[in-house]
Write a structure and sequence with these properties.
This protein is mainly alpha-helical and 189 residues long. 38% of the residues lie in helices and 4% in strands.
Length: 189
């Protein structure tokens, strides 16, 4: 699948970078890890084994049924076949290592309709939206920030693929903005 626009190395993930959020984050555990190392025959055998256990009435408790359903989702043969055509770094979630559900659910349609703003410069309309939304209050220390000391910060750092939109920009005072780095650690805790 050719890329329309390059996305930054070390970004959260390609579909999330393009969509500006992960719409299927809860589903990622149901998808296999990338790269796929199991042969198609092994995947098909595992799928048929789990399916036969479900249909033969093997599970005796609700917990066992749900466990088998999760295993069934994880071993879908056609998903594994589809994965073999792509490089692992293009389809895997950078956080969990599973194949990204967006890649399958929105395949071919992950580019957003509105053009993505390129560059670190925060446009004036975004600045005004952020100042109005945050009401001149630093989002880290919660102190009032005068107009002369306003600074804007990308929540998901620009260097990690964060968009320059009002949803990803926040107001900080000079002191708090100097403490922050381009790490994603604070977001993932």
């Amino acid at each position: 699948m050719p890329r329309k626009r390059p996305f930054p190395k070390g970004s959260v993930c390609k579909p999330c970078w393009e969509l500006k959020y992960c719409p299927y984050g809860q589903l990622v555990e149901y998808f296999p890890f990338a790269p796929v190392t199991r042969s198609p025959a092994e995947v098909l055998a595992a799928y048929q084994e789990v399916l036969s256990q479900l249909t033969d009435g093997v599970p005796k408790t609700e917990e066992t049924v749900w466990e088998l359903v999760e295993r069934l989702h994880f071993h879908v043969p056609w998903i594994h076949e589809e994965l073999r055509d792509y490089a692992p770094e293009d389809i895997s979630c950078k956080i969990w290592g599973h194949c990204c559900p967006v890649f399958f659910v929105q395949s071919g349609a992950t580019e957003t309709k509105d053009p993505r703003r390129e560059g670190r410069t925060i446009p004036r309309d975004v600045m005004l939206q952020v100042v109005r939304r945050d009401n001149h209050v630093c989002q880290a220390c919660h102190q009032y920030v005068p107009d002369t000391e306003l600074e804007f910060d990308h929540i998901i750092p620009y260097s990690k693929g964060g968009p320059t939109t009002a949803a990803n920009v926040r107001l900080l005072c000079q002191a708090c903005n100097r403490k922050k780095s381009d790490s994603l650690r604070d977001l993932l805790v």
